[in-house]
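ARCHIVE RECORD
Type: protein–small molecule complex
Small molecule: L-homoserine
Source of inputs: curated submission
Record status: active
Notes field left blank by submitter.
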Amino acid sequence: MLKNMSEIGIAIAGLGVVGAETARQLTKKNTELHSRAGTAPVLRAVSARTQKDRGFDASGIDFVPDATALAARNDIDIVVELIGGSDGVAFDLCQAALKQGKHVVTANKAMIAHHGHLLAQRAEDANVQLCFEAAVAGGIPALKLLREGLSGNEIERVTGILNGTCNYILTEMTQTGRGFDEVLREAQEKGYAEAEPSFDIDGIDAAHKLSILAALAYGEQVNFPSVNISGIRAITDIDIAYAGDLGFVIKLLGSAGRGRVPTVQPWLVARDSQLAKIDGALNAVAFDAEPVRSIVCTGPGAGAGPTASAVLADIIDIARGRRSFAFGRPAASLKSNGDLKAVPPGRFYLRVMVRDETGVLSAITSILRDHQISVESMLQKSQSANKPVPLVLTMHETAHEPVAAACAELRGQSFVDGDVLALPVLDSA
Ligand code: HSE
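STRUCTURE (tokenized, with ligand):
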């Protein structure tokens, strides 16, 4: 088929909730999108495992069972990859599409976190666009903000609530006092959490997104393995309650500072700070930068509408002829971030489950003293006899390494009966 230059041909691979919503928006709002893009985005082909009604008018749209075949079609200018997975069909399709000179739009955070630099290089070689706004924080245009709105700034720190499932679980625990297992089970029953939730609750999903944000913020090659990750499985209703008594809520934060190891871990966040107020399944991304200082954006980080919103923005940018480097700079200029410093020192919360025996408190403070850690405050509420009791301490500013070493030593003590948990404290955000 000859190309009609006033149209831009689109193929969507993957018709799950996001793919179907993107198809619905493209077909339903074609005239409006045309006027915004200056060129008519026309959905010409879709690919999925099964062909069925997905709530959009599929007349005139080819159904192609083999997604990779989309890359070879002359009537397609933009391949929208919504299959998912870091490798396999999604990666094959994106590589093939770029090789064939097609623009690629994807929501695939795992693929970009693992292969983003290679794909960005391939896109530049083929003089086409690789866009992945939907891969990070769903409906929040966080990558556009970094690449365009903040392009004149030096980014000092990116901090985000990047996983809606974890934020939902922690918010429910905070608001209802229920335990982690019960809230997770309910979230699964309601469809907020996956049946296999480990990508979300173990912090992997947030780490994918953080590694992409850090690459854009600091002009680095995306480096998922550099992220230090711990999820929310260890957070108990006890921690939520003690954090509350101390004036904090617990949030899973992704945090990347210039030249520092990026981390995904639960933090105690001061209750009156902006990030503490981002509840439920919402996401937020905060930038500390010069000269702008501080920006916090919040919104839905997942779901059909918010993710399709980001996919459509990428499609319209390409249709308009807006050109930008995938990571904000030429791929060849992106630095390898092999030499990262530890995160800066800070205050910590420590919770140790102990037997309520004489000398336990002094033994714990001795261990902390031996690691040069200064105790700031201590809480222990009485519990029923013969059960391990939580002993909660906060520490003055200290580096992370001595805290990790003290926790390891505490875990080996006979009076410790249960988990030892240390969480960093964020006073303002
Ligand atoms: N499962 C993710 C979340 C959304 O809960 O935020 C997709 O990354």
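CURATOR ANNOTATION: The CA atoms of residues 18 and 304 lie 4 Å apart.
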